[in-house]
Amino acid sequence: MILPVTAYGHPILRKIAGEIDKDYPGLEQFISDMFETMYASDGIGLAAPQVNRSIRLFIIDGTPYGDKLPEMVDFKKIFINPYILRESGEDVSMDEGCLSIPNIREEVIRPSEVVIEYFDENWELKEEKYSGFAARVIQHEYDHLEGIMFTDKISALRKTLIRRKLQDITKGKVNADYKMIFPNLKKSKKLV
Ligand code: CO
Q1: This prediction's pTM
Q2: CA of 93 to the centre of ligand 1 (A)
Q3: What are the residue boundaries of the structural domains of the chain, listed by start?
Q4: Residues 65-119: pLDDT tens digits?
Q5: CA 73, CA 116: separation in Å to the nearest integer?
Q6: Which one of 3.60.20.30, 3.40.50.1400, 3.90.45.10, 3.40.50.720 gives the CATH number of domain 5-185?
Q7: Residue 141 is a catalytic residue
Q8: What's the CA-to-centroid distance between 23 and ligand 1, angstroms?
Q9: Gap from CA of 154 to ligand 1 centroid (Å)
Q10: Which residue from 113, 78, 108, 83 is spatially nearest to 95, judged by alpha carbons?
């Protein structure tokens, strides 16, 4: 089932997500719904708060980039209760987008390497190091579990320049080709 994506301004995107345990009801189905939602909206990663659940879980499928970026070959993963242990390497600037912030891309500076601890879908505890684009996607999705959006990390000038656009997204004044939950949608306004 495709789930609606929470839009910028939705309060759940600002909460610190909570850990889950093995008995979390419907986990397998929820993960499958997250993949379906991510593929339907052409995303490369999706965090649970983006589908309105404040739990520590995100998924990534970077395999479509596998032919260009070696770190993305076979990089399809489920991260449960993840914690970033270390960030290292040099700071790299690259433009990012987010399914919760349609039609906006901005340069974000992030460290090039990350060590992350998490449980996989079989509840096996992993500790892995990622670099390059894989590290960036992990950091972006991980931020969603900490209530952080990539627009928090852009320059003050860029923030000012996109302020109005972000307000519009919150109100539902945006064209996304997937279903979204808008926090400040005026009930009387009919969306086309
Ligand atoms: Co995002």
Answers
A1: 0.95
A2: 16
A3: 5-185
A4: 999 999 899 999 999 999 999 999 999 999 999 999 999 999 999 999 999 999 9
A5: 18
A6: 3.90.45.10
A7: yes
A8: 27
A9: 14
A10: 108
